[in-house]
Design brief:
Number of helices of chain A: 13
CATH architecture of chain A: Orthogonal Bundle
Strand content of chain A: under 5%
Order of helices and strands of chain B: EEEHEEHEHHHEHEHEEHHEE
Number of helices of chain B: 9
Strand order of the largest sheet of chain B: 6-7-8-3-9-10
Helix content of chain A: over 70%
Number of strands of chain A: 2
CATH architecture of the largest domain in chain B: 3-Layer(aba) Sandwich
Distance between the termini of chain B: 43 Å
Strand content of chain B: 25-35%
Oligomer: heterodimer
Largest sheet of chain A: 2 strands, antiparallel
Strand order of the largest sheet of chain A: 1-2
Radius of gyration of chain A: 21 Å
Shape of chain B: globular
Helix content of chain B: 25-40%
CATH topology of chain A: ABC transporter involved in vitamin B12 uptake, BtuC
Mean pLDDT of chain A: 90
CATH class of the largest domain in chain B: Alpha Beta
CATH topology of the largest domain in chain B: Rossmann fold
Largest sheet of chain B: 6 strands, mixed
Chain lengths: ~350, ~270
Amino acid sequence: MRKYWVLQRKSFSFLVDKKTTVSIFALILAAVVAMLISIGVGDMYIPPWDVFQALLGTGIDINQLIILEFRLPRVLVAFIAGASLALSGAILQGIIRNPLASPDMIGITGGAGFAAVAFLTMFSDDSNNLLLSINYLPLFAFGGATIVAFLIYVLAWKDGVTPIRLILIGIGLMALLQALTTLMMLIGPIYRASQATIWLTGTVYGTSWNEVKALLPWFIGMLPILVLLVRRLNVQGFGDDLTKGAGISVHRERFLLLMVCTALAGSAVAFAGAMGFVGLIGPHIARRISGSSFGGLLPASALIGGIMVVLADLAGRTLFSPLEVPAGVFTAAIGAPYFIYLLFKNQ
Amino acid sequence: MAVLTTSNLTLAYGKEPIIDELNLQIPKGKITVLIGSNGCGKSTLLRSMARLLTPKGGHVLLNGKDVAKRSTKQVAKELAILPQGPIAPEGLTVLQLVKQGRFPYQSWLQQWSQEDEQAVMNALRATNLIPYMETPVDSLSGGQRQRAWIAMTLAQGTETILLDEPTTYLDMTHQIEILDLLFELNESEKRTIVMVLHDLNLACRYAHHIVAIQDKTVYAEGAPEDIMNEQLVEDVFQMSSTVIPDPVFGTPMCIPYGKGRVVRHVNTPQYA
C-alpha cells in the first residue's frame, strides 16, 4: 500500500500523507470526546445522551442551563486557549529551531503575566476594590504579550534576527519579567496577590460566552495565515542559509510568524491565564503522532493542546471537589516532568 | 564562459574586509574548488555568491545579472547552495527533506506537480536514496545524510550548485562517494559545481578549476596541474611541501612537511 495520496491536476497538486491524515482525524475525534466528557462531568453529572440533547436544544431546562450557560463556554475557552498555546509553541520551535522553545520560555507569556499582575495591583484601592473593571484585564495581558514580543524582536535585531539571539534575549526578558511580577505581588495588596497567583497558574474558572466571543476571532483569524505560511515554515526548519537559498526572505517571514505566535499566545493567556507547559509539550506530543512536517504538525499540535487544557480543567474541577484547582496546576504537573525528560533525552 | 562573476566584490562581517575588491569568474559547466587556509574567506565568498551575504561593495553576477537585484525565488531556480553542516528538524524523513528543494517552483495550490515528483525521484535515484525515502534524516549515517542534503539541492533543478565543505566529518569512503557523485553530475548533466574543499589532493583530482584564496583576494586560479606547486602551498598555507604527480591519477599531489616517522627506502626523496 502506498503511503501517500497523490493529487495531480492542472490547477492544483498535493501530496497527502495517509498516516498523518488518519491520525489528525483520530485526534479530532478524541477532542470531541474529551469535550463531551468534560461537559457531562461536574458537580452534577449529566449522562452523554442528555448532553447531546441539551446541545441540540431539546434537553430539560436545568441541563440546558448548566451546559449552555456554564460548561460549554468554559470547555470551549479551555480548548481554544490550549490549541492557541500549542500552535504558538509549534511555530516558535520551528522558527527558533529549538525543541525547547515555547511562548512561556521566551517571555511572551511572562509579558502577559506581568501586565495582568500590574493591572490587579495598581488598579486596586485600599479596600480591595478594583478601580477598573476586571473586564479590562485580558486587554492588559494581551498588550503585555505584544509589547514583550516587539521588545524581543527589537533587542535581538542585528542585521536581521537570528534564532539564537531571539531565544537568548527572550530568556533574559523572561527572567526580568518574573522578578518584576514577584515584586509587584509583594508590594501589592495581599488579596490581589492570591488572585494574581491563580491567574499566573492559568484557569478557565468562571468563563462565559463573552470570553468565547473575544477569544474565538483571534484563533480563527490566525488560521488562514497559518494555512498560507505552512509550506514556508517547513523550509525554515533547515536554517537561515538554506531557507534563503530556497528563495525565501527569511527575516520578513520570521517577523510575520513571530507576530502570529504572539497573537495566539497573547489571546490565549489573556482569557485563560498563564497556562504553563502547553506551548512546550503540546507540539512534542503532536510530533510523535503526526511527524515533523508542519502540514500535519500544526493541526495535531492545536488538537493536543486543546485536549490537554480541557482535561486539565476537568481534573481541576472534579478531583478535589468542592475545591477548584486551576487547570494550569495540572498542565504543569504533567508538563514539568516531561520537560525534564526532554532535557535528559537531548543531552 | 562564466556563470558566476564577481566585480570589485568586498565582503566583511565587521569593519575589516575579508575579501577585498575581488574580480573572479567561475567557468560554466566545470567543477571549481575554492581552497585556502582556515579563515581566509573562501566560505564567505561562496556564501556571498549564493546571495546569503550582502556585499559591502561590488556585485555578484549570476548569468550576467546582479543577484542582489533579482527576486530571491528566481535566483533559487538557477543556483542552489548547500551550507556547511546543515541540520534537519527532528524526525523529518528523507522524502520530506528532498521535497523542500522544489520550493521555488511550488505555489500554495501546486505543491506536488508531476515535475516536482520527477525531480525529487531523480534526485533520490542519483543519490541512491530510494530505499531510505521514509527514513528519518537524523537516523541516517553521516554519508547517507550528506547524500540526502545533496539530493535536496539536486531536486532544486539548478544549473549551478554551490557546496560548502560537502565532505567534512565524513570518512574516506564517504568522501570519495560524495565527490564521485558530484563528478558524475557534472559529467552527465554539465552542471556547474563550485565547492570549498580542505583536502588539496582530492581538490586537485576532482576540480577542473582551482581558485586559491589568500590575503583577501585570489592568489592563483587555473587547472590544478597548471597552478599547483610548492610555492603556492607555501604562500597560501604557510606550509613547506613537495608536490608530485599522483602515482595513480596523475593529478598534483601535495605531501606536506612536518614531524613524524620517516621510514627510509631507496625511493624516499629527502627533504629538509
